[in-house]
């Protein structure tokens, strides 16, 4: 199979640029917010609250957002999402203005940050399903797996550079001007998106009642074992196994490496995932996908335990790097399953359920990590999460033999035959 098949479509390349700029801006913004909030409060629970403020609207709005995405034109909807993010990033830029910090109490600034993060959760509930649906309208079905791999790779590369630059920019230009840089990237994404043409709406049920539409989407996800199994496994692993929300504590209080070391730690998982994804363009992962996904999540749990116990900076970096490498396998397989198994008229709703299961579990995981760190201590919380991930994988392997046998090659062959 041609490893560059999707890149031969001009609009797909523009799409990758838009996705890179948005993920870069979003991931950088989240890191800058984490650093600022923990510097203001010195309270691990405050980091968990950041995640909670984003996950509440992201989960509560997700299904409704999926319905809207399936009913509307995708390019213009994505423009509105990016405009919303730009307004939020500009608000954070203004809120972090030094003169503003002199005029307002710390608590007021903190609540303002939480409010803008909450609005960001609303935007994100629409952003993910819109991006997922737009990919399928830019490239033909036979190269969905290749497009999903390049899209995920772009996501990870942006996730590498965004957090890394966040750590350095905090040190070099401060929180305020880091927020200005984030706003600039969102504007770049907005301008680039206008080079993609509007796309047809493939849903034959325009005007379908909301609740009937939502029931149909949920029914599809829960009745399709491959989709439901992949989402459930990844959700629980991310919920319990993610230590990313606690990285400011490790950087400042355990490893003592400052904001630049924090940037390295935050970028390490994404570096590992990006390398995995680049390799997968030449060595596809669709054969024996079930077993590969189980091994990948098990490896992720082990890496989290090593990271939690480490007191050496470079050992911590290596553990996070390897966690990203195996997580990259998980992400590619999950995205390929969703692209191959989802009908065109239901992509928005299925992607919304995916965001509830997986995307929002990152923020719930951040809240869980903050609470357990408060109750157990930071190191114990990370080790506990890794152990829960291992238990989850073992249980899934035992109770779902059909998932262990999952192989996506047949689906790919069917799409190629239909082209």
TrEMBL record:
Keyword Cytoplasm set for record: no
Cross-referenced InterPro entries: MFS_trans_sf (IPR036259), TM_effector (IPR010290)
Bilayer-crossing regions: 12-33, 45-65, 77-97, 109-138, 150-170, 176-196, 226-251, 263-281, 293-322, 375-399
Domain of life (superkingdom): Bacteria
Protein location: Cell membrane
Membrane topology: Multi-pass membrane protein
Coiled-coil regions, chain positions: none
Record bears the keyword Cell membrane: yes
Main location: membrane
Protein name: MFS transporter
Organism in which the protein naturally occurs: Zobellia barbeyronii
